[in-house]
Amino acid sequence: MIKLVYCINRKSELSDDEFLNYWKNVHGPIGAKIPGLRKLVQSHALPQGNDVRKPDFDGMAELWFDDMESLLLARNSCEWKAASVDEINFIDHGRVAYFLSEEHEIL
Fold first, then answer.
1. pTM, entire model
2. How far apart (Å, rounded) are the C-alpha atoms in residues 36 and 103?
3. N or C: where does the chain have the smaller number of CB atoms within 10 Å of the terminal CB?
């Protein structure tokens, strides 16, 4: 399995609740239509309370594919393009981390 990971931050004009609601309830269903996608996970940052360090990201998205060929086909789909276009509504593209990975489960 191949996993594409995006660590994202919200647009500054959105509250945390607005960002998380849009990401989960509007963008999530758009992304779920990407062909070849085996698993889609959103990890939403939790409030830190008295933690002295602010989280580096507001959330992380994981997109799982069987193999690189499936990912490359997905990237050329109209569903992928629709999800990419929608990102402007809630993501600060100046503060995104991205990587492609293959998991190696230890425990």
1. 0.90
2. 18
3. C
